[in-house]
From TrEMBL:
This is Phosphogluconate dehydratase. It holds the Pfam family ILVD_EDD_N. One of its GO terms (cellular component) is cytosol. Its cofactor is [4Fe-4S] cluster. It catalyses: 6-phospho-D-gluconate = 2-dehydro-3-deoxy-6-phospho-D-gluconate + H2O. Residues 407-593 form the Dihydroxy-acid/6-phosphogluconate dehydratase C-terminal domain. It comes from Croceibacterium xixiisoli. Belongs to the IlvD/Edd family. PROSITE patterns: ILVD_EDD_1 (PS00886), ILVD_EDD_2 (PS00887). Its EC number is 4.2.1.12. InterPro entries: 6-phosphgluc_deHydtase, Dihydro-acid_dehy_C, DiOHA_6PGluconate_deHydtase_CS, ILV_EDD_C, ILV_EDD_N, IlvD/EDD_N. The gene is edd.
Amino acid sequence: MTLHPVIDRVTDRIIEKSRASRSAYLELMAVEADRHSDRNTVLPCSNLAHGFAAAGEDKASIAAERGPNIGIISAYNDTISAHQPYGAYPPQMKIWAREVGATAQVAGATPAMCDGVTQGMDGMELSLFSRDVIAQAAAVGLSHAMYDSVAMLGICDKIVPGLLMGGLRFGWLPAIFIPSGPMPSGIANKEKQKVRQLYAEGKATRAELLESEAKSYHSAGTCTFYGTANSNQMMMEMMGLHLPGAAFVQPGTPLRTALTRAAVHRLAAITRDGADYRPLSACVDEKAVVNAAIGLLATGGSTNHAIHIPAFARAAGVQIDWTDLAELSAVVPLLCRVYPNGSGDVNNFHTAGGMGFVIRELLDAGLAHEDIMTVGGDSLRAYAEEPWLDSDQLAWRDPGPSGDAQMLRTPADPFMADGGMTLVEGNLGRACFKTSAVDPVRWTIEAPCRVFDTQTGVIEAFAAGELDRDVVVVVRFQGPRANGMPELHKLTPPLGVLQDRGYRVALVTDGRMSGASGKVPAAIHCSPEALGGGPLALLRDGDMVRLSAEDGVLTTTADLAAREAASPPKPQMGTGRELFAMFRLCADEAEKGGSAMLAMAGL
């Protein structure tokens, strides 16, 4: 199938504007590959002995280079349900490596925080910058120069983008991302949402709310709503960095085990010493980055990736911005409705056909790049299938037709003709508006604004009845440089209540909303941010604000030029936030990825 002309044009534009940075990146990777061509030659004996001193039965093999040595970068911890299964992975992976004459070592561990645990809490101000820390931690682990390929064990919010950013700076090494899969489905999503809203209205107790939440988030595995974590898994499939179909197979199942074992075997087969070398730097190119964006749009994925995609793309020398995303969104249809954009969760999505169905349909319609280097096949076409066990042997097959037309459709009969990620811009800056979860009758909101400097202020005003009217709620000084750009997840229930009461309500903020943000129209990631004189700092209560996804505008009728910027709140101390002052000081705009590390590196 011929590639859609708009996707072709946008890709060509990205290639052209990335020409210098991509060339510099690939040149660096080539030099580094030569410098690290043979660890027994590069590493002095004392250094090498340190590296395998604790390798036990693998020591002799590593010393003699009898086979490839796989470095494991793990984001294991017991607090994140999705990452808890990783505790058991390294011992198993070492056994599976030996099956094919390879070895495996845990190269390093990265931090991994859960936005679900820190939502609305002080720790959320560390969340975005944890991505930079994860990238740096991955680099520390790989800096030992002991490895021929890399197994990336990470799933959730900032962790996959951070691992990818770190791994790409060692891009001469092949890398495979290995998920653990989603937990089994808990209580119905509508019931969970109902209890949350009742609690926001004071009609449910904390005990009732906690009981509901514990029935939803109840065991090991990824949370089952389609937020940032599961959008990460989708992107790894669209970029060919998983084994095909690995994203949404549940933990502890024979199929999950078979996929992880096969990933280890594959990591031994695609090193530079073999006949099928697939370095990460070659896998993650402009077309792969465009595929990640297309997958985000086609599945209604997390708005957080409007920040993460530009960030990890920069780590590979690729330049992509919100204009590119908006133009892609205009031609990529919405094929999926997964909670919170639909009633079923990722387990239902996987059962209905999942990523194999989505990728097959996109490729057949000319809506994705097939000709990319992947870790699991000759092209992305290998990912248009689903894994299964055929007499205990791992195999792949066509996923067949959609198993649920209320969740998964073809490009000929989509839920929406576009991907639902709109760029809005005007005299209040540039921002993202996710329309795929919002009723079209609410795509344009024009009302007086009420300005807040904290999300706590919004909640207090809601409780006092001060927002019972048509209103555009503006929450500013929430950008990367102000306070680390926390998700403003606590705003979703009260704003949803106001909307259900019949008011015309919208949110405008330079902060982030949850990857599971839903039905309330919102202009998020406003750039430039308020700190430093961005236009949100010039708004005052009562100014008329117009937010329209239909017209692509974010404007006010107020005369901003005649005003002085409001003073930001004093930076808060505690919960380690003071340790991240350097990150806040050096971070760049959300549209560039909101990264201090990349900005300081000049990437």
